[in-house]
Fold this protein.
Amino acid sequence: MANTKSARKMVRKIARKTEVNKARRSRVRTLVRSVEEAIASGDQKAAATALKATEPELSRAAQKGLMHAKSASRKVSRLTHRINAMGAKTA
């Protein structure tokens, strides 16, 4: 356990930050899952709409240090590619 006053304060700060990060991570995962479910169902319009909501949340997570910026970018790129491929199959 923390011994000094500043160490105890850091423990409290870390606990608050952990809760915020858990909520953010959960929100990002839920949004990504909604895009993947829309892709799996074959509805390109719903997938594009879900991606539009997911993309800013992913970039915000990267900006806040929840995930690496290139990981967020790669995830958006791969989801976009899968959605565009759906359009190519139906056309």
Q: What stands out?
A: The helical segments are 5-41, 44-63, 69-90. The chain has a mean pLDDT of 94. The chain has one domain: 5-90. The domain at 5-90 is CATH 1.20.58.110 (Methane Monooxygenase Hydroxylase; Chain G, domain 1).
